[in-house]
Amino acid sequence: MELHRAGDLEGAEQCYRQVLGSYPEHPDALHLLAVISNDRGRSDLALTMVRRAIGQAPRVADFHGTLGVVLREQGRPDDAVAAFRRALELDPGHVNGHNNLGNVLREQGHLDDALAHFHRALELDPGHAPAHNNVGIVLERQGKRDEAIAAYRSALELDPDLTVARNNLGNALQAHGDQEEAVANLMRAVEEDPGNVVALNNLAVGLRELDRKEEAVVWYERALEVEPEAVTTILNLGRVLKELGRNDEAHVQFTRAYELDPDNAQAVVWYGVGLREVGRLDEAVAMFRRGLELLPDSADAHGNLGMTLAIQGHMEEAIREYRVATELRPEDDSIVFCLSLALVATGRLGEGWDLFDRGFGAGQRQPRSFGDIPTWDGSDLSGRR
Known about the structure:
By secondary structure, the protein is mainly alpha-helical. The protein has helices spanning 2-5, 9-22, 27-39, 43-56, 61-73, 77-90, 95-107, 111-124, 129-141, 145-158, 163-176, 179-192, 197-209, 213-226, 231-243, 247-260, 265-277, 281-294, 299-311, 315-328, 333-345, 349-359. It is elongated and about 85 Å long. The chain starts with a helix and ends in a 26-residue tail after the last helix.
């Protein structure tokens, strides 16, 4: 067991197998071999071993708890719940049993029940950092972000190296608008776990929000070194490259994402954006329409379709698409701004000017060209309604 605690899984496994060579049904050796097998990605062997251990000692709560962990790993949540409940019947004070049962219940959407088990785990062991982290996850899903942030902080006070809690804290701070602290936590998360793709991607998102876009590119690329076919990361990299004016590189990423997952609505839409940037307008329109087949309520697809139709001079169709996009995402002033310009370009100055007042706050100050329609030059339109 000392080898196991030290992280020498191969050495520990050899020791347990030696025990089983002499005592083939030794329950503790069977159980510990199951734990190691599951940790090393051999869940089928783990399931066999832990069931043999339970066969020899059916009233040991730890054995049933490990069975639940293995079943959860195999994607069998209902069976995992049954195993964890059996562990708690045998030992109501089983801290990991409460924490693990809470995890499966959370994944099943039973948030209140999950929270009750996490709280029970903390009543039994207030220093259980993973349970504090799990409380935070549930609270965040319930929309209680401030309380979730406090729970993540509690987890990290107890275990500063709990990377999952640091990543969760960073994400929650991002959503809360505290970008500087979010980036600091995510930076530490990736230092502690350089292969954590979620933390790498989220760090890049935070840097982009802080307008540190060149740094964001570096971290997106590092995330893709770990997981080269992560479509969301590829799309995020493409977006920030586009914002940096590196359109050719952005188009390469959008194309790559589309080729990897041609049924991903976001990949389809951003591939369409890349096509539009290189002047392939008819193909771009086809991509945006395909995106809407996959995700009819995509404001991005409606907005980009509207923009491309406007460039082609199809102003009425463009206006219809812009209106749908603004209904889907009324807080997006950039879409409102595009709609205002399209209305002004078609002579509906009153409505266009009113909307322009709103869209101007998005910082979209340069005139936009819609085919052969004369663009508005920024002059005062008062009196021309």
